[in-house]
Amino acid sequence: DTDKKIFFTLILVLIVFGIGRAYAYFSAQSETSTETVTTATYDLEVETKSSANDLVTNIDRETELFFIKKIQAFNPSHRIIGEEGMGERPDSLDGVVWIIDPIDGTMNFVKQHRHFMITIGVYIDGVGKLGYIFDVMREDLFYAIAGEGAWYNDSPMRKLQPLKIEEAVIGINASWVTPNPKINHEKLIEL
Q1: Cα 22 to Cα 118: distance, rounded to the nearest angstrom
Q2: How far apart are CA 87 and CA 98, in angstroms?
Q3: Predicted local confidence at residue 6, as pLDDT
Q4: Is the pLDDT of residue 155 over 90?
Q5: Of residues 175, 101, 119, the one with CA closest to residue 188
Q6: CB pairs under 8 A, 24+ apart, for 179-184?
Q7: pTM, two decimal places
């Protein structure tokens, strides 16, 4: 229980400080109409990764590095997988492994929409234990703790009841069922 409290506190601290980077950029962006915004510390630099729709910014990378440094200071034995490649590439999920996407929805971030998140997952010995999704602009936190349930901010979410896959509503990205080097699309086609 003490470990859960420590993890929970650390993740909240990371999220609060991490959102500062995105929020500072957006605050400055709303005050000007120019394409590139310069604030005291932020120039937005946008690059493509695998395609024109797969973007990364310097804010993504800086925020991911921020998370990595704070987690390593907390416990250097914890391993970190980062969406932007700033973390490690572990060959297993043994021990404590953090999975971080510092700006989930970078296209929305770049286009100044409100729908981007900070997402963090923590696995312990290959089992998902903690998951956090923070809506930066709305300041809404969705989180789940294995065995304890899920919450929206401070309110517990209704527990879902098991049902057959034939009765489920499932939404997926179309790229998940076409040849894709990041996932085994054949498994998803079977569904």
Answers
A1: 10
A2: 9
A3: 55
A4: yes
A5: 175
A6: none
A7: 0.70
